[in-house]
Design goal:
By secondary structure, the chain is of the alpha/beta class. The chain has ten helices and twelve strands. About 40% of the residues lie in helices and about 20% in strands. The strands form three sheets. It has a four-stranded parallel sheet with strand order 1-12-10-11, sandwiched between helices.
Length: about 280
């Protein structure tokens, strides 16, 4: 069996930064409760390893009950400003591990909403990053999930200004379709393609990989937006594709293939990818 890895796969800068922040906080705060506000990243294997070291998950509904001397790590997706204020009011030590690219989108949302612009975000409903950015835009916020949503937006007045941002893990193709529709409806539209380069690089690398493989394994969390998009691309461009979280989930038919391609979401640890490769090579002999 031939196992081929995508040119770019696995941890992105923002996720690696969040994981490092969590490990560092656990090491430096022995004797204090250390929490992440919501799951730190979208990968259960990585979360399990942090939980073994003492990291607890704090939900927003539990903030008012948290111990005042606690350490709270803000996950890579970020949070709305109102949630940050609640944590600070409780006397928590806040470690902000929000991805720098998400932070930039939050700042742009606040800036342009403050200037009176409508902030339009191309993103997935209920995604943590979207909720955080929406909090900075306030009442001037519109979420657009796809071209159909964009087409439903009424045409803006000629002097009405808007800004278009994107969830960092959004599909580049979908963003371009949304931009095309909104450019026709809004004369004064500023467009910021805020899709993370790491997301684009993984999607582009997968496109290059698909023609050279009999099947594609997408390794990553099943609740991860960027991993789901990788699966969608693989399904559209390869005869067989599957999403797995660990080597134990590899479908049996993959062991009979001549060439298996592997990609991985931006929250997938290196050792999990290595485990999938090892399992394929061992059983595919």
């Amino acid at each position: 069996m031939n196992v081929v890895l995508a040119d770019v796969l696995g941890y992105c800068m923002g996720v690696r930064r969040a994981m490092d922040s969590a490990r560092d906080s656990l090491e430096k705060n022995t004797g204090r409760a250390v929490y992440s506000l919501g799951p730190l990243i979208h990968n259960q294997t990585a979360l399990d390893s942090l939980e073994e070291k003492g990291l607890k998950v704090l939900m927003e509904t539990d903030i008012e009950r948290i111990e005042k001397n606690s350490v709270v790590i803000v996950r890579a997706h970020g949070i709305p400003p109102a949630i940050m204020s609640r944590l600070e009011a409780r006397g928590c030590t806040v470690v902000n591990a929000t991805c720098p690219r998400v932070l930039a989108s939050q700042k742009n949302a606040a800036k342009y909403a403050g200037l009176g612009c409508t902030v339009i975000l191309a993103g997935d409903k209920n995604h943590g990053e979207v909720a955080g950015i929406a909090g900075y835009a306030g009442s001037k916020f519109i979420l657009v999930e796809n071209r159909s949503d964009a087409e439903k937006i009424s045409k803006f007045a000629d002097d009405e200004e808007a800004v278009l941002l994107s969830q960092t893990t959004f599909s580049l193709e979908e963003f371009e379709q949304i931009k095309t529709v909104l450019t026709e409806k809004i004369k004064k539209l500023k467009v910021f393609n805020t899709i993370c380069p790491a997301t684009r690089e993984r999607q582009e690398a997968l496109h290059r990989l698909c023609p050279n493989a009999d099947g594609i394994l997408v390794v990553g969390g099943k609740n991860s937006a960027n991993t789901k998009r990788l699966l969608q691309i693989a399904e559209e461009n390869c005869r067989r594709a599957a999403l797995i979280e660990t080597s134990a989930e590899i479908p049996k038919d993959f062991f009979k293939m001549g060439t298996v391609g592997i990609t991985a979401g931006a929250s997938t640890p290196d050792d999990v990818i290595e485990g999938v490769v090892a399992a394929l090579k061992q059983k595919g002999l």
